[in-house]
Amino acid sequence: MSIYNEVRGARYEVRGVRRGLLLSLFLLLPLYGWAQDLNELYEKAVKEKIILRARVDSIKARDKQLHKEVKRLEEELEDKQEDAAESQEKLSKLQQQLQDSPLPALLERKRQLTDSITVYKQRIEETKQEISGIGDAYNQARGQRQQLEAAKNEMAAQLIEKHRQLLQRPFKQLAPADFESARQELRPFANEENVKALLQQLDVVEKNNEAYAKARQVLSSRYNKTEVQHATETLRQLTQVNDAQRDEISQTLTQLTGFEPALTAFRELIKKLNSRGVGTAGYSKSDLGDDLAVFHAEQVEQQVKDIPYLQKSYATFIRELKANPAKHPSIEREIMGE
To answer: Per DSSP, which regions of the chain are E strands?
Structure first.
């Protein structure tokens, strides 16, 4: 716009010059005397007019060029505006696509995750500090545990040594309470391999002791052939016995084997004495003494003395018989199996 104004100003300037020249001529005509000066003035005005025309022509040419340049710029501006409108339309479409796509949500999720990571890092540092404190406490507790473990091992070793002696005792020195006491003291250490092994051995010894006690009970009770056979078979199957227990088992097996023969000998003596008049009014102590000698009562006594039941029964039989030969002893019917 500044170039266009400049062109218009030049046009007004040329017109002013023309008007000035015409006015000068009209004023100078009456003054013919001054013709020479007027001629010079005219020539000067013509020269100025030529200069001004050249300037006007130059300005016109420049104006024409400027018009072309303005038109070109206007066309270029229009093209740029169209391009800008097209770009704006593409930008709007792109923005709409971004709004419709999951990308914004993903970016927001990324931001949230970044914030969460920051928080977690802080928590991790706090946790590391806590772990460090826990580590110190753990090391302290570990030291105490090692001390307790050492004390526990020492106590377990003492208890093992104490209760291992049960494995070496004969049956006659063992009682059910011994095993229960041992279990109660060893139970806190049951996870220890050596304690576990000892408890297993104690279980075997206890079962052996029960079998032995049952056999002794059979020998102390009225004769029962089935029980005698069962006790005999059970004792013969026992394992993990010490030397003292092995001797006890051997002795008991001998007694079990001799139970029936000793009982038979006892019964035979009773029959013989009864055939001589025991339990009748005329049978005296003198007769009893003679018959006991004749029937070798001492041999029967030796035979039954190893069987607790028969030994006790024989002693009762002889005592009552000697006290009153004319009366049958109270134990007689039981011995005879009646």
So the answer is: none
CA distance 181 to 206: 12
* Close Cβ partners of 245 (under 8 Å, ≥ 6 residues apart): 170, 171, 208, 212
Please choose, from the candidates 104, 2, 14, 8, the residue with its C-alpha nearest in 3D space to the C-alpha of residue 52. Answer: 14
This model's pTM is above 0.85: no
Give CA–CA dist 259/264, Å, rounded: 9
51-86 pLDDT tens trace? 877 876 886 887 788 678 768 868 876 877 887 678
Query: Which residues are CB-contacts of 311 (< 8 A; sequence separation ≥ 6)?
Result: 304, 305
Q: Is 305 helix (H, G, I), strand (E, B) or coil?
A: coil
Backbone phi and psi for residue 105, each to the nearest 5 degrees, phi listed first: -65, -40
**Rounded alpha-carbon distances, angstroms, from residue 66 to 5, 52, 58, 325:** 11, 20, 12, 175
Residue 321 CB: number of other CB atoms within 10 A?
23
Distances (CA, A) of 208 to 50, 154, 169: 155, 30, 12
d(CA 314, CA 266): 8
- CA proximity to 100, closest of 92, 89, 110: 92
